[in-house]
Amino acid sequence: MLAAIAAIALPQAGMLLGDRRLVRAGDQLRAEMTSLRVDAMRQGRVMMIDGMIEGNTFRIKPFYSIADSTEAIDQTGSQQSLLTGAAQGVMTTIEVDEEADETIELPDGISIQAVGVASAARSMEIEQLNQSNQGQGWSRPVLFYPDGSTSTAAITLIDETYGKVVVQIRGITGDVTVSEVLAP
């Protein structure tokens, strides 16, 4: 009799644990994206997150540009470009802080199935500069802007046995939601 009960209960317990891992991974990504949006606003700089497709790793990093000289909190550009006028070709050095890059690992057994990012005119330059990463298996970047808006995107996390969750971010508001566990 105990064997019969165990035969019924053990698979159900395994399903619940697998579901919890997926939910935890979705919640982890939602928290990171919410934090990244706030970081972009605080720093005055575009922040990015991309994921290794069919892997379990996300990368978070700032996007350094000439606008950092006036917009970013650390003003990593050069004020000289403002004084000489836009019509003159002035080369400025943009200091890149390699230590600002961060890697996030998903729980064991969870991988990134897909990252869908809606195209927008203001993201084209950044996406073009990151195309080589996509050839290495990284997704298109999800962008977080200093004005609080973001890319509109959907990221699907999957556990081959237990299902998948979809983490969506709405571009205008930056609102991040996580779906219920769906069939694989």
Characterization of this structure:
Residues 12-17 and 77-94 have low confidence and may be disordered. The radius of gyration is 20 Å and the shape is globular. It has a single domain, classed as 3-Layer(bab) Sandwich (minor pseudopilin epsh fold). The protein is α+β, with helices and mostly antiparallel strands and 184 residues long. Helices cover 32% and strands 23% of the residues. It is built from four helices and eight strands; from the N terminus they run H-E-E-H-E-E-H-H-E-E-E-E. A four-stranded antiparallel sheet has the order 3-2-1-5. It has helices at 2-43, 80-84, 124-129, 131-135, and strands spanning 47-51, 57-62, 102-105, 111-117, 142-144, 153-159, 163-169, 176-178.
What share of the residues lie within helices? 25-40%
Task: Give the strand line-up of the largest sheet.
Answer: 3-2-1-5
Could you state the CATH homologous superfamily? Answer: minor pseudopilin epsh domain
Question: Which blocks of ≥5 consecutive residues have pLDDT under 50?
Answer: 12-17, 77-94
How many domains in all? 1
| Sheet having the most strands | 4 strands, antiparallel
Q: Separation of termini?
A: 33 Å
Return the CATH class: Alpha Beta
What is CATH's topology name?
minor pseudopilin epsh fold
If helices are DSSP runs of H or I spanning 4 or more residues, what is the number of helices? 4
Beta-strand portion reads 15-25%
Mass-distribution shape: globular
Going by CATH, the architecture would be: 3-Layer(bab) Sandwich
- Give the SSE string: HEEHEEHHEEEE
